[in-house]
Amino acid sequence: MIGRTVRRKRMRGQRMSEAGWGELTAADTVRFERWLPGPQTRVWSWLVEPNKRALWLAGGDLPALPGEDFTLHFDHQSLSPTHEAAPAQYRHYARGIQTRHRLLVCDPPHCLRISWDEGEAGYSEVTFALSTHDDRVRLVLTHRKLTPPDRVSVASGWHAHLRILVARLQNEQPPTFWAALDGIEAAYAERLSGHDT
After folding, report:
1. Full domain range(s) for residue 181
2. Residues 6 or more apart from 126 whose CB is under 8 A from it?
3. Residue 127 belongs to a domain with what CATH number?
């Protein structure tokens, strides 16, 4: 009986890992890993070029130098050619939102680190790290300095945005952001519960 339970948990963990679930690496840090079609410079362009980034995350020009501030423009409705109304709890996103950020590190085509506007909670940090392995590119996205109340929404949002990025890089039609987010928040609430220390 115990062996069966352990095996079931291990199998469930493997399925979740294969699905690309974000993992807590510290109480304030969530980490994602994705394997993407290369070359690395192509993937890098989807991180830094505003017209490409706007197709999976948010538009807005990056500044020329680290230490400078910039604005990201989120329009969740435009992340897919298929339009879907935002769920009731996200209606305030329907017309798009703007957030303030700071460029912390820009090392093409390997590492991009930016501050992330958490509203009243202050700023956290997001790092996109790229490396090439054979003909694929490994993207590691790490979001640090998160407060416990923000972890579920941040992890869910990145999961959905990364699903769209993967589709774009594989030349597939991406799901709508809301379809990509559907059910993810409840799953992350369960996965990340009990990690408040």
Report:
1. 23-191
2. 113, 114, 115, 116, 141, 142, 143, 144
3. 3.30.530.20
Q: Per the structure block, which two tokens stand in for 77?
A: 């409705």
pTM of the model: 0.87
* Cα–Cα distance for residue pair 195/197, rounded to 1 Å: 6
For the stretch 129-178, pLDDT in tens is 999 999 999 999 999 999 988 999 999 999 999 999 999 999 999 999 99
What's the whole-number average pLDDT of the chain?
87
Domain count, the chain: 1
Q: For 190, left (φ over 0), alpha (ψ -120 to 50), or beta?
A: alpha
Please indicate, yes or no, if residue 77 is contained in any of the structural domains.
yes
